[in-house]
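Now for today's protein.

===
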Amino acid sequence: MDAIGTFLRLIWELAVYLVVVLPDMLPIILGLATPLALGALCGVIGERSGVVNIGIEGIMLIAAFFAYLTGFALHNVIGSGPSLVLGIAVAILVGALLGLVHAWLTVSVRADQIIAGTMMNIAAFGVTGYLNRLIITPSGLGGAGVIAPFHLPTALANLPFVGPILVMFFNQGPIAMSVVFIVIGLQIALFRTKWGLRTRAVGEHPKAADTVGIDVYRQRYQNVIFGCALAGLAGAFLTLESTGSFQNGMTGGRGFIALAAMIFGRYTPIGAFGGALLFGTATALGVVVNVRIPEGDLGTILKSIPSFWYAALPYLMTIVILAGVVGRSTPPAADGVPYVKEGKG
């Protein structure tokens, strides 16, 4: 009974601790969730039209590199602000171009979509690592700079209940702040517009969609390119808004976690965003525990847990979610199936 009582007490202390630190965790959660959410939206848009893209990791990494390279090269030429804006634009453009390549391979060439995405990931790690060592490392120049976050007025930030939520969404840089609006916009567009209807049609019944005059190839091309542009924006966030630097392999599996968030969210923008916030919370917990250690037995236990377990928590959650949710999260019927127009063989 003493053991049960101690266990229940620790659970209660943990719950109280999480409530106390939650206001401080909220901005961290959104920051950590931003690249995951943008990557998950890339997956949602592509798979809703019938194209699987597991190359999100590679697209994010290549876009992150070229975003940083742009800011890095132009920082002292045109100034910090314009170079960072141009870096974001370059990242989006790079993502879109890689989306064009992926769409060509999967829609026109009808290559295996898993292999095409895997090739993208492998190429990204090799190319960015080589270019980083060739261009950036030996240059001796300073970094690209970091986009400064916006800060709410103190009066708004201190509002009871509402204040921490406002701080979560608006004490951020422009890319993190834009995620909420992108998610809401895509949710409405996917289920309330002609584009959304056509997207869902070519993902579920491409032959029927073709019969009523929808260009399946064009729709899939548009979706893959647009989705990969969002993955490019995620790459820009990593280098220009989050860290201000580029390291080899800095995406650290975020593209694959984004796919898990997409599946967890049942292939909807809002659901994918919720999954990204869940993974962001898991990562933020490890950050907060190291900064604000609770007192008493709970603090002793949390400090005794090796830091790598906190770092591994999002990846462990990915495995659990993929094992437990995949069977109950049904993808579009034609997801991953190349479409062959009648008469083209």
In short: The radius of gyration is 22 Å. The mean pLDDT is 90. The chain has 14 helices and no strands.
